[in-house]
Amino acid sequence: IEAIRELKRRHPDVQTTLGLSNISFGLNPAARIVLNSVFLDECVKAGLDSAIVHASKILPIARLEPEQVEVALDLIHDRRRPRQGDEPAYDPLQRFLEMFEGATAKSLKAGKTEELLALPLDERLKRRIIDGEKNGLEADLDEALTVRPALEIVNEILLDGMKTVGELFGSGQMQLPFVLQSAEVMKTAVA
Prior knowledge:
This protein is mostly helical. The protein is built from nine helices and two strands, in the order H-E-H-E-H-H-H-H-H-H-H.
């Protein structure tokens, strides 16, 4: 991360590319998704121009649990703390491994699905756009059409979701493949 930042400072016109997966080699798939996503975000903030990464192996930072992001950042930036008085030592690698013990990539996504289904209908539709989630979209739209006209659903809910996608992309919290995924869900919703 610091090498990218320094290279960009010294040679701003040089383009940088980074292969991402080695940072998480040896971790379980769910942990790899989180660590790769957070590391990529940090590298982009430092000036990275492009990355060699499989888009299905990362998630936008906005879709990750805040505690997962925090511990991943602690791990990336080596924020270990020794024991101080009654406060135990903190090892971010140990904490990160504990967080993902027994977790799978599917379970990481399943938790998000449960959260989505618990939302009120309008918010659920908006989240489907933001998260690029087509599964269940048709049923939610059918339900929404029983209480609102189609144009109102598009203008007040779906477009609000796309606005959020634009803001996340503009702030660097969402990468282009996920913007395209959200656009595809929007296209499906209005078809």
